[in-house]
Write a structure and sequence with these properties.
Chain lengths: 461, 461, 461
């Protein structure tokens, strides 16, 4: 019981790393390797035998039709967003500069492997095997993005061990939610307004609520952002901003959907940026630009066209959505974030509610409306290439819009319950040390890791 | 009248931002959205109906022939140059580090939208509509690049409001000049030695001349470049350097021209870099390398093959051009920039005359000479793929070279007059407060924005 | 003799730059330009006449089959690794921050030109001409990578003049070794575990041994890494990490091999990262993560699948290899590097033995074993697309594995002898000033450059 309480007394950046972190990393990686060895196979585009057999059978199949050439440049852009974009975006908090880049690296490297298994298990099994190729790599990176969004809410309050355990739970629930949305409800969400942003944001917000620590003076840290921190953070911002068109278009169908999605996102972001500069100066009493707004809200336009981007949203529609997203994001930073902290005890370190939460919900709504307005007259033969059930005769736009709306509700539910389960597994007081809810979060992690580690008594707790 | 004078008394980094910047951003974005709504349509490669209708008609049209796959990787490289390259390149001036990245972001986000409209209006209308796709995105980014080049000359002397107004004018004139060169004169300028670099540089130099402020001690700022400023600036330099092959080849014809342009640029830049290191050490009394030279002159090789890069310039020719470009650029920084400031009152903050002005003119001349030497014997059936009028029977190399030379003269004229009009709209003294020319620039902006803002009296001027 | 000794008395960052560096750069570039003018031609994919002639003859040849579209995105990723990755990786040494980026830039710009000639000369001549295209550009960047690896060992001990001379020798020997491996022994080494990493590492280690300077207190510099140095270094690390899949797959065959190589590398790196975090914390008495480990060892997974990545290694196999590579790399930093310095007088500034040396050898061994296990049953018709001599009837896996093993031995021999020749041309004491071996290295450079410069007496020595 005494150990338990001590472990609950966390300090910034990882206490007890001595054995817990190394052993957790090694055990997780060994489990991953064993599961990959038993479950994972090359798909037809990456297997020497299958790809070349296939080619011989079909005279029209050429090497340039390998999915690698359609998707790999997009994959690399997404990869840059995950590792450089998310990593450096969070360096604006001077105090957590290196943690944000370093822990981002660790969590992402773990999550993409675990996501490959979970996404394969829930919606990619072929005769008992998970088939992998560049599309599964993109999907794994997408899932990783969701974990990193949640990381943005708890930055400064968690050790890498806790972050890894959070990733185990969040990746699993992400895959379940994705399965419900894409496979059961047949929803469209190529850029992940719902699956990635809404899910990641509300999951993270619940976890940070559970972890609430009254003494964490967030605003002090934020104010200590300095010249170089801001320039490093701008590296993250700019890379996310530039490559968001690749993010939203990475797994859409080939041809016009991929092309259109990239372009819609481009216009949404440009419009969002002007809204961000405008409202950032407007809400400041002295008319000064707030760097935190520029670094974050200018990206909300990418989030908000994550669902509708592949549809015939038009540049006009994209720009309106982007403008709204930038506006609500800045207003969120200014007026909502302080309320969340003071009233709801939600310490949202990086403001993910403003960048991913609200714009994600907006994106889901825009996606539902755009689906409900889709018609064969506008999409022609391309209807089926955007909507899986878009066969001209059977097309029901209202029904599609309804399923999109249900998908948002499901995602919000999964994120809230998932975050609660992950963050506060044992509701109420800890049975051993009578610590309140927030502390029991750490207790669970402690227990989880002691079970794994086995040699509890050898730790320096 | 008193307000007018006060407004003319600008301080570094945006006075009067309180309402002018937000309202200007909002009004501009609303205008953009309305114009996009009425004028812009998806092109055949991005429209669901058109692309899929087209595919059915032609048995040979496949998704991999969508222009997205030919141009999108190049587009992303160009995008990185515009937002990371230009943004960080200017951080070498420690004092303006964040302004350069932040204002770069704002101006670029606005300019690419405005450029889409202007370029579409002047040379991309189809039945009264502007058709957009990845090629229009690249062209919009190119035009934005020109605005950012001009920004390099006035950095530290202008508010974001002024920069936005400059962008409105410059983008418009850029589109007119581009129309004259590409459509009327049939000029080749895929990498924009003339349209982007020469135009942007001389436009910016005239504006900075008009804005001349004797108290601005530029050299002091430059000397204050420090360790980290230089490393941030090198991020900008290196990204521009690496992706310049993509920049020059982004809108050339598919196949050999795109491939050849990228390679010629690669060799020109490599050769230019050695010339830069050589002459930077040579012109320094102690043989030391000057970081400003390395950060800027090493890029001149990309500028100087912007016109001829798609031609059969050969790696040999490219390397000679690159070597010359690096040499004149370093010599310009050393000997010409101080003269421009002291004799002509042109304060070229970032030295754009050395990086874009002279190498741009060199590139135009090299393009004219290479065109004049082009022959069916060397180009074979590829002649028409490089030169629009390259039909074997009608080919007249001397005429083509002549039109290229005329294009340079037109560009210089447009840039000089355009810069003068933009910078010093009201020539002579201000009629209200009798301030000289340089101050009236601000006055115009003031008037322009007060007209827009309507609520002049509410501003804190 | 007095000059000789003086010249041997180098200080950090380039003495005698005044004339030696500029003249060396100019002379080298002039030689390069002349050799390019006489020897280099566009290949069929970049030549206007050849590409378009070819297209007419073959009805199935389309612009999208130009190698540009298969390789250029990979080339750009490799280019980023060479200029940003290697350049910024070495900024973790605060003292050498700018030298590492700046000299990296110079050496790389020279080496890629020289490599084009040397690689063309040894294994790319067609009727007396070297044919260039995007594949030769990638190969030149690869060779440059090898020189930059060696640079990592001698950082802080060499002037740019010495680095350029080292590059002349190393590029030449690289091309000879590559010729022996790929052409004579028919070895597979698409990602360069042997040709790039093993060769570059052991070459550099021998050179740094020859340059041994007892007073260079390396550990002091390393300890002076600070917050911002570490963030800059992480830029290098992350870019190398993200783009390593492109590096290893850049010159493999089109289709499944390129796709598979990228994916194998991705999984190897993810696994390696977890191993790195685990062992970095494990070997530290306080369980703290060592930033130098994170920045370097996490990349070893990419090196170690450089040979076997294109084979049917499976994600499972890749992850095991990555895990081993990360482990030996961290252990190398912790236990081997200090021994190398204290016992063998090898001052490995950036720890290239841990990042490139041992993982490179591991990669060669993995490649040999994977080759020896390759069978038509697993590869099907794809066997020949991975192994040049993989014709089903004649395939002998054991023999292929044997040749791979011989290739490693040859590479080690070439690197050791090459490094000795380059670093210590004149073995023993200097005949003029009786300085020991280490100093004579500089003497040779001095002599080499004086011969070139001709105007020895004018130098400020």
């Amino acid at each position: 019981a005494q150990n338990c309480c001590k472990s609950a007394d966390l300090r910034e950046q990882a206490t007890n790393m001595r054995l817990r972190l190394p052993l957790l990393c090694i055990i997780l990686e060994v489990i991953l390797i064993i599961l990959f060895g038993t479950l994972v196979e090359y798909n037809v585009d990456t297997d020497a035998k299958l790809w070349n057999a296939n080619k011989n059978q079909s005279a029209t199949r050429h090497d340039y039709e390998n999915e690698f050439y359609y998707r790999y440049p997009s994959f690399q852009d997404v990869h840059v967003m995950i590792f450089v974009g998310f990593g450096f975006l969070m360096t604006f908090l001077q105090r957590y500069g290196f943690s944000s880049v370093g822990f981002n690296f660790l969590i992402a490297a773990f999550s993409l492997q675990w996501a490959t298994l979970m996404q394969g298990f829930f919606h990619g099994m072929h005769h008992g095997k998970i088939h992998v190729g560049v599309t599964s790599m993109i999907n794994a990176d997408f899932c990783t993005g969701s974990v990193l969004i949640s990381f943005g809410a708890v930055l400064g309050k968690t050790s890498p061990v806790q972050l890894l355990v959070m990733a185990i739970f969040e990746v699993t629930l992400f895959a379940v939610n994705e399965f419900i949305l894409l496979t059961i409800l047949g929803a469209n969400d190529a850029g992940g307004s719902m699956t990635i942003h809404t899910f990641g944001a509300y999951f993270g917000l619940v976890v940070t609520r559970v972890l609430y620590r009254p003494n964490l003076d967030k605003s002090k840290h934020r104010n200590s952002s300095v010249y170089h921190s801001d320039l490093f953070a701008m590296i993250g911002t700019i890379y996310l901003w530039m490559f968001w068109p690749s993010f939203n278009s990475a797994i859409t169908n080939y041809g016009d959907p991929q092309h259109r999605t990239a372009m819609n996102t481009y216009y949404s972001l440009a419009s969002c940026t002007l809204a961000t500069f405008a409202f950032s100066a407007l809400v400041n009493p002295e008319g000064k630009l707030d760097m935190v707004h520029i670094q974050n809200a200018a990206l909300a336009g990418g989030v908000a066209v994550g669902t509708a981007g592949e549809m015939m949203l038009t540049p006009f529609g994209s720009m309106i959505v982007g403008f709204l997203a930038g506006t609500i994001s800045v207003l969120g930073y200014k007026y909502l974030t302080p309320v969340l902290e003071s009233k709801l005890k939600i310490q949202d370190t990086c403001g993910i509610h403003n960048l991913h939460g609200m714009p994600g919900v907006l994106g889901a709504v825009v996606g539902a409306v755009t689906s409900a307005l889709a018609s064969p007259a506008v999409y022609g033969n391309g209807l089926q290439r955007v909507f899986a059930d878009g066969e001209p005769g059977e097309w029901n736009a209202q029904s599609r819009g309804g399923f999109q709306a249900i998908s948002l509700v499901v995602t919000l539910g999964m994120a809230l319950i998932g975050g609660l389960v992950t963050g506060g597994y044992k509701v109420g007081k800890c049975s051993e040390c009578m610590l309140p809810l927030g502390k029991s979060f750490d207790l669970i992690y402690f227990k989880f890791t002691t079970v794994i580690i086995l040699c509890h008594s050898n730790e320096r707790i």
